[in-house]
């Protein structure tokens, strides 16, 4: 399990010219490791995540998910790859208000055509992993912000993705809860052996990351040693 971005360049129209969002970005994320990408607003973090999620096709470069290069794939093929191979944790949980925590996860299995009989057990295992097994039958309005984010994380893992992409998971949380959420993502990354990329503007919560890379003006700078995050 791995994620590879190679020489990725992405631009957007900007009046009569083009604005460069990603400038020759290369990134290798092995399975079972967490890479945090930090940078200010407008630095290219969201664009990097969208390209890694195959939601946007870059003008140049390749994206490879678990050995599958996405270049030339149809929309339907990309949608299937995302459904089965890529878990996305959005900044806002966007949970369905009428569903319980367990049902939020079970619906992901239904979308993937999996057996409803096994979905409940899988959902309960993941809720237990994020510390919410005893709240499985509560709806979003009965959960705290941190609990809703943990349901969001569990939901992204429901279909056993190869790659886990996490967008600003601590933006609405205080320092203690934010650090706990990142620590949880790191533990689940190792348990599920996902290749995980977490983007954020804040370094304060990232002690559990295997590596911290910095993006500015669309250019990614990666430390020479993968273990620098814990040492810094």
What does this structure look like?
The protein has a single domain (2-224), classed as P-loop containing nucleotide triphosphate hydrolases (Rossmann fold, 3-Layer(aba) Sandwich), CATH 3.40.50.300. Strand 9 and strand 10 form a beta hairpin. Helix 4 (116-129) crosses helix 5 and helix 5 packs parallel to helix 6. The model is unreliable at 225-232 (pLDDT under 50). 34% of the residues lie in helices and 28% in strands. The chain has a six-stranded mixed sheet. Strands 2-1-4-5 form a four-stranded antiparallel sheet. It is an alpha/beta fold and 232 residues long. Keywords: ATP-binding, Nucleotide-binding, Transport. GO terms for molecular function: ATP binding; ATP hydrolysis activity; transmembrane transporter activity.
CATH superfamily: P-loop containing nucleotide triphosphate hydrolases
Count of distinct structural domains: 1
Question: Number of DSSP strands?
Answer: 10
Mean pLDDT: 89
What gross morphology would you assign?
A: globular
Number of helices: 7
Along the chain, the helix and strand elements come as EEEHEEHEHHHEHEEEH
CATH architecture: 3-Layer(aba) Sandwich
Strand fraction band? 25-35%
Strand order of the largest sheet: 6-7-8-3-9-10
The assembly state of the depicted protein chains is single chain
Q: What is the third-level CATH name, the topology?
A: Rossmann fold
Largest sheet: 6 strands, mixed
Helix content: 25-40%
Structural class: alpha/beta
Instruction: Identify low-pLDDT runs.
Output: 225-232
Radius of gyration, in Å, reads 17 Å
Span from first to last CA?
27 Å
């Amino acid at each position: 399990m791995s994620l590879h971005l190679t020489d990725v360049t992405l631009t957007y129209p900007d009046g009569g010219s083009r604005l460069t969002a990603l400038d020759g970005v290369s990134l290798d994320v092995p399975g079972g490791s967490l890479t945090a990408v930090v940078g200010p607003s407008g630095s290219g973090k969201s664009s990097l995540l969208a390209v890694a999620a195959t939601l946007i096709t870059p003008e140049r470069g390749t994206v490879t998910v678990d050995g599958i290069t996405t270049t030339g794939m149809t929309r339907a093929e990309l949608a299937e790859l995302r459904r089965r191979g890529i878990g996305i944790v959005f900044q806002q949980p966007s949970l369905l208000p009428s569903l319980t925590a367990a049902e939020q996860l079970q619906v992901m299995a239904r979308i993937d055509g999996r057996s409803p009989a096994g979905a409940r057990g899988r959902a309960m295992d993941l809720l237990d992993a994020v510390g919410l097994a005893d709240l499985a039958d509560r709806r979003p309005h009965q959960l705290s912000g941190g609990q809703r984010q943990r349901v969001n994380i569990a939901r992204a893992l429901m279909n056993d993705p190869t790659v886990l992409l996490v967008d600003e998971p601590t933006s609405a949380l205080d320092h203690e809860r934010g650090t706990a959420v990142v620590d949880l993502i790191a533990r689940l990354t190792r348990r599920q052996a996902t290749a995980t990329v977490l983007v954020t503007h804040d370094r304060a919560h990232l002690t559990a990351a295997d590596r911290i890379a910095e993006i500015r003006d669309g250019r990614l700078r990666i430390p020479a040693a993968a273990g620098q995050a814990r040492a810094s």
